[in-house]
Amino acid sequence: MAGTINKEVCGYPLSIFFIVVNEFCERFSYYGMRAVLVLYFKYFLRWDDDLATSIYHTFVALCYLTPILGAIVADSWLGKFKTIIYLSIVYAIGQVAMAVSAIHDITDTDRDGTPDNMTFHVVLSMVGLFLIALGTGGIKPCVAAFGGDQFSDHQDRQRRTFFSVFYLCINGGSLLSTIITPILRAQDCGIHSQQKCYSLAFGVPAALMLVALVVFIVGSGMYYKAEPQGNIMLDVCKCIGFAIKNRYRHRSNQYPKRQHWMDWAEEKYDKLLIAQIKMVLKVLFLYIPLPMFWTLFDQKGSRWTLQATTMNGYFGSLVIQPDQMQTVNPILILTLVPIMDSVIYPLINKCGLNFTPLKRMTVGMLLAAIAFVCAALVQIEIDVSRKQLLYLFISSSHFYFFFLNLIFRKHCPPSHQHPRTDDITSKPQEGNNAIRFVNGMKTAVNVSIPAANFGLIEPFSYSNYSLIKNGKVTFTLWSGSQSCEYSTDFGFGSSYTFFIPSTLVFGPNCQESITAAEDIKPNSVHMALQIPQYFFITAGEVMFSVTGLEFSYSQAPSNMKAVLQAGWLFTVAIGNFIVLIVAELAKLPKQWAEYVLFASLLVAVCFIFSIMAYFYTYIDPAEIEAQFKKNVNEDDEDNKHKLQKTEVEMNKRDSIKCHDEDDKDKQTKM
Ligand SMILES: CC(C)C[C@H](NC(=O)[C@@H](N)CC(C)C)C(=O)O
């Protein structure tokens, strides 16, 4: 750091307190909004699953592409401080737009609880999401780099700790918000009619973003603010372009080779700029294999969550929903980061091993590959258990329906016999349970639960299947004015046919009379089996991501810190695209095989990365820059010296000339 920090607490600049609190609130805002976004698309905007998923992923990808924009603006034009302020305002406006777009009362003219002008809500939410992507992505590389800027050159250890705490704040904020916003969404709210409260679920993240902005501004007087050094990115592009052109012009063997191809820019560009570009290119080259890590990492939210839907989420009396398993990642981050920093790394150091940042990142990649091997093993276990269940289902249901048909034939005239058409033969999606009723009575029966209505079931007929969530459910059966209740508990992913016997007596309770046939057993493989894979991927993340964040800062030249952070985040965006490409191209019939494929790809990439890392030499950009500046100053001194010498010589020559001329004059006079 070039400036001086006035206030320090325990050897840390006080200003970083505002930066980490800002990051905590911003991540709360981002992840909180993201947690309910797909549901908002589906249930508020009434989009189908495909459209909701594509827009969601497009938004996430955009959030990792915009950092480039923010970094260029910060490093070349506004500086990090102003860029963070301006883009945070854009971000907060986006969040407010989302919250407003989710108020159904605004267009609910007929007051039936549904918006009447959907275009208004769609347009406002899309504008909101675009502003959020611009804001969150734009400030992301700046906040991390700005935090790093607050430390002096000799505060390497403190800066490393800062990046760990920074990562803890990311995960603390995201953990809290992914727990809180779904609860807020589940509340009912509205002026004219009550609906699920998406406006509150978006409103609280919007408020947190405003808090983030205010906290950041409050710290204003304490920050070290590095001045932007002109349009650096344009200079970089021009310099690289010139080096390539010049190299091409001098391709013939008659010209002596230069140490580095960038040295071909020396004719026109400053040596310092060339050295800085070399530093950035070296790091960017090293980044090439990194997206593969994110390809595996980001499947937590997709493939792993889908895997959890085929598992049993009962942890004693606590029921964990499949998507809630994702919170294991931030929880583990909060425990693993301090353990790594205060126990594991010092222990490795004590053993005399030099566990360099690039070695840590390599180990991080291997851990992620191990996580996917664990996921494959769990998948095999699920597949085996499903095969057994299906076998059970086929054998038991054959016997069962043979029995039912006998009853039907006995009680029901052929015109009343309704054929069974849509038997479920595979597990219901998303951990739901598929339920249907068979009415063995001579009168029609109506069956309902708060979440679904099976409709009027004619005598000797079947209802359609209804999908219901896990937990205790109470069915109400009606026949004319008589009713009774039947309760039962459901697990995850089962299918049941409930048989209403002809002898059913309506009363307060018909618990004993109804018989249940378990067509498909509930998921038997426990969700806890996913914990090892979460553990390995998170340990990998700590070694890879926390280290990578700090590495990207420490190896970047002073005028391109944010740009290199953006390069780091760009690897996340590419990783997300690879998921789509590989999953599309590979189209493996078995999910476990896809997991093994991803694990193998990462091991291969990790091998390449370790070779690249072996040839990388760590640098201290500040030292190199200082050296160049010193050389320039020395050159300046030399030049000054030479100039003075020349002046003296010229004066001497002039005086000689004058003497000569004087002599000549004298001679002519004589
Ligand atoms: C790509 C990452 C650097 C993004 C980072 N994510 C995390 O720290 C995750 N462990 C959070 C979890 C809730 C998915 C971030 O900055 O958000």
| Distinct helical segment count | 17
- Annotated CATH topology of the largest domain: Growth Hormone, Chain: A
The biggest beta sheet is recorded as: 5 strands, mixed
Radius of gyration: 34 Å
Helix content: 55-70%
Mean pLDDT: 85
Overall number of structural domains:
3
CA-CA gap between termini: 73 Å
Q: How would you sum up the global shape?
A: elongated
Q: CATH class of the largest domain, anyone?
A: Mainly Alpha
Ligands and ions found: ligand LHV3P4TQ
Structural class of the helices, strands and pairings? alpha+beta
- The CATH fourth-level homologous superfamily of the largest domain: MFS general substrate transporter like domains
* Uncertain ranges: 415-421, 653-670
Strand content: 5-15%
Report the strand count. 15
Protein model, in words:
The protein folds into 3 domains: 1-230, MFS general substrate transporter like domains (Growth Hormone, Chain: A, Up-down Bundle), CATH 1.20.1250.20; 233-255 and 268-378 and 526-619, MFS general substrate transporter like domains (Growth Hormone, Chain: A), CATH 1.20.1250.20; 429-520, Sandwich (Immunoglobulin-like), CATH 2.60.40. Helix content is 62%, strand content 10%. It contains 17 helices and 15 strands. The longest helix has 55 residues, at 357-411. The model is unreliable at 415-421 and 653-670 (pLDDT under 50). Bound molecules: ligand LHV3P4TQ. Residues 27, 31, 170-171, 174, 329-330, 333, 541, 545, 572 line the site of ligand LHV3P4TQ. The site of the ligand CC(C)C[C@H](NC(=O)[C@@H](N)CC(C)C)C(=O)O has 11 residues, from helix 1, helix 6, helix 12 and helix 14.
